Amino acid sequence: AKEKYYVASKRADSNEIVVVPRNHPALYYYSVETESVNWINEFDLLKEDNKEIECGAQFIYRQKIQKCKIKWLSKNDNTLIVNFDLPQIAIAPGQAIAFYIGDECLGGATIAR
User: Is residue 93 within 8 Å of residue 113, measured between CB atoms?
Assistant: First the structure.
């Protein structure tokens, strides 16, 4: 059987795609940037500058919630940085990501990079 390959990155400037086998480190991410953040129940990271919040994140349907820390990358652009405790696979720009503390959904965003 032939090994399967996955797209690790796209290089628009040179019109190339980079493909790697599933166990390649290029498919795993410890952090992502998000945009278009939307909070629920008036939860707001804007209350304290540069505060990092420990919470959970889910970016795949029925995925186990992944431990992470979130903080503002740019309040003006409504972007967050999400740092996962463990490396995550299969993250792509355009995916939705939801943030939780326990069973409470804090809100969500769109993965930018």
Answer: yes
Question: Cα angle at 85 between 83 and 89, to 5 degrees?
Answer: 80
pTM for the full predicted model = 0.82
Alpha-carbon distance of 9 to 82, in angstroms, equals 19
CA dihedral sign of residues 46, 47, 50, 51:
negative
The pLDDT averaged over each successive group of 10 residues in the chain (113 residues) is: 84 92 91 91 63 90 92 80 93 92 92 90
| CA gap 69, 63 in Å, rounded | 18
**Whole-number pLDDT of residue 79:** 86
Which residues lie closer than 8 Å to 101 by C-beta, 6 or more apart?
55, 56
Handedness of CA 15, 20, 22, 24 (dihedral sign): negative
